[in-house]
Amino acid sequence: MRQIVLDTETTGLDWKSGDRVIEIGCVELLDRSLTGEHFHVYINPERSIAAEARAVHGIDEDFLADKPVFAAIAADFEAFVRDAELIIHNAAFDIGFLDHELDLLGKPPLRELCANVIDTLKMAREQNPGKKASLDALCERYAIDNAHRTLHGALLDAELLAEVYLAMTRGQESLLMALEEEPAAETGTGTLSGKRPTLKVLRPSDEELAAHEAVLADIEKANKGTCLWREG
């Protein structure tokens, strides 16, 4: 299965108010292994960046001035994520922003482009109700080194999230392997083969019958009544 772990950085918190995507980071998982393939781009939003957002990711307008606009990178982005399952932390946020960018270009939303979306924030809250579910908290819970994460960055966060997701779903590996194993070849000696084998019937000897009768008599005596095996 091909999966894409995705993260974005934006000019603010609300695309409905005109905020835009300024960074996209994606890493590829194939059959639960990182392939080394990634998609990473900075985007000129053609608008200012809120001070609160800048404090989180450290990206300013001067840095983005010579970067491409979303329309220039849209085709490459679509090609990278097409038909894959997306893994996103707080998926509603990133999907909302990216769908808005795609809609501005008259393109279909991500859910029509991709196979599925997994929200690791929702997954973490379901697995550990009441506990912190931020990316930093999950890195700590699963002993993933994030000491180099002093600011948010889309590619770095996607890489960390990939490790978190694999740790959160590690129990699924054996299940997937079991499901993918080919069934054992049928043989003529098994009951699953086309022809049922002849059963060998073993009949008791006189000595064995006498020994069995003695055991039943002992059971009957111990229970001070008729032995059930003698009834009928």
Descriptive overview:
- The chain has 232 residues and is an alpha/beta fold.
- It has a single domain (2-180), classed as Nucleotidyltransferase, domain 5 (2-Layer Sandwich), CATH 3.30.420.
- Helices cover 42% and strands 16% of the residues.
- The chain is built from ten helices and five strands, in the order βββαααβααβααααα.
- The chain has helices at residues 51-57, 61-64, 70-81, 91-104, 110-113, 120-127, 135-141, 154-168, 172-180, 206-223, and strands at residues 2-10, 21-30, 33-42, 85-88, 116-119.
- The chain has a five-stranded mixed sheet with strand order 3-2-1-4-5.
- A hairpin with a 2-residue loop joins strand 2 and strand 3.
- It is elongated, with a radius of gyration of 31 Å.
- The model is unreliable at 186-191 (pLDDT under 50).
For the largest sheet, list the strands in their spatial order: 3-2-1-4-5
Order of helices and strands: EEEHHHEHHEHHHHH
Low-confidence stretches: 186-191
Tell me the count of domains: 1
Name given to the CATH homologous superfamily: Ribonuclease H-like superfamily/Ribonuclease H
Mean residue pLDDT: 87
CATH class: Alpha Beta
